[in-house]
Design brief:
The protein is an alpha/beta fold. The protein is 43% helix and 15% strand. The chain contains ten helices and nine strands. Strands 1-3-4-5-6-7-8-9 form an eight-stranded parallel β-barrel, surrounded by six helices. α4 runs parallel beside α5 (126-146) and α8 packs parallel to α9 (229-238). The chain is globular, with a radius of gyration of 17 Å. Keywords: Isomerase. Residues 30-264 form the Xylose isomerase-like TIM barrel domain.
């Protein structure tokens, strides 16, 4: 069964980003549970800033799963990416992600590599940057497997990275890795910018997809942009996908209303 999730961010420095809930973890989880979400996607400053036992207690109390954990704070707070020309920074980036892998795995969740993939920087070829990225994904994917979970890699739009922008390019990258424990995160917002045909791209690549970000064309909750969801949901359901469809969207017009709009859309397209 396809499961619903909603984002909760606990990193003040990224408060302008596309996260439904902010700051108060328990209140956010209580609201997510009351609305009928199956899980939460969590963004923390670092793995050590969250007590695993406390989070586990809340998940049980509110009957929620941990869908995934984000690693973006590694870039936002520390400037770390997996494709930095400086090998010391690349190593620190892997160490940060390793910590997030262990944190998520303790609760059965994968870690997401999005912004921490970085860019091909001036003076460094795209080929070299992709080689560094592939080596890191292979290493980190193996670590995730050893901890009983998998790793998520997210193709981003051209304004956020000059490396991998489409699901097909992401699938080709995954073929070069030394393990099969890395899956793609299909983000409908990024796909709206880069893909010519969203349902067709998903149909071609669903076997590599392990997580889906549910946001409209303008990054608002589904239904507040121009994305046509019905054919997308049909492809996802026909594929046999049983992971999370998670709302990484702006809290517009308010966190509560954004969450309500999201779960209503999820139920309409995946549960009706």
């Amino acid at each position: 069964m396809i499961k619903s999730a909603v984002t909760i961010a606990l990193v003040p420095q990224i408060k302008s980003g596309p996260w439904i809930f902010w700051e108060d973890l328990e209140k956010s989880m209580q609201e997510a549970s009351s609305l009928g979400f199956d899980g939460i996607e969590l963004f923390t400053p670092a793995p050590e800033t969250m007590e695993i036992d406390y989070l586990k207690k809340l998940l049980v109390e509110y009957s929620l799963e941990l869908a995934a954990v984000g690693t973006g704070a590694g870039k936002v707070l520390h400037g770390l990416t997996l494709t930095d020309p400086d090998p010391k920074i690349r190593q620190k980036a892997k160490q940060f992600i390793s910590g997030m892998i262990r944190f998520g795995a303790a609760l059965g969740a994968p870690a997401i590599i999005g912004s921490m993939q970085g860019n091909a920087m001036p003076g460094t070829s795209r080929t070299q940057s992709l080689e560094w990225l592939g080596e890191a994904l292979s290493e980190l994917g193996t670590q995730a497997k050893n901890h009983g979970t998998f790793l998520l890699y997210e193709p981003l739009n051209r304004y956020e990275t000059n490396l991998i922008n489409t699901l097909s390019a992401g699938s080709e990258l995954l073929k070069t890795l030394s393990n099969t424990n890395v899956k793609l995160l299909a983000d409908l917002f990024h796909m709206n910018i880069e893909e010519a045909d969203l349902p067709a791209s998903l149909a071609q690549n669903m076997e590599t997809v392990g997580h889906i970000h549910f946001a409209d064309s303008n990054r608002n909750p589904i239904g507040l942009g121009h994305t046509t969801i019905q054919p997308i949901s049909e492809v996802i359901q026909k594929s046999g996908y049983s992971g999370f469809v998670s709302a990484e969207a702006f809290p517009y017009p308010s966190p509560t209303e954004a969450a309500q709009k999201t779960i209503s859309s999820f139920n309409q397209f995946f549960r009706s």
